[in-house]
Amino acid sequence: MNHAPRLRRSRILLLLLGLAALALSSATSARAFRCECAPLGGEFCGANGVTYDSPCVAHCFGVKIVHSGPC
Q1: Given a cut of 60, is residue 61 above it in pLDDT?
Q2: Which of 17, 33, 56, 61 could serve as 37's disulfide partner, Cβ 3.0–4.6 Å?
């Protein structure tokens, strides 16, 4: 019995799964890098009612600042 076709399909599947995992980890680390913000030591109220350390942090979550100070 020849198992070559089954083995070939298994290897291709493993390769594709590995590439998918690599792509997902790259996207995650790239997003984390873009969203590195230094805290400004103040408070900023986001449009979602959450208080953020800086406008940069709010922007990372896709939130606009509505005013400075706590919500």
Answers
A1: yes
A2: 56
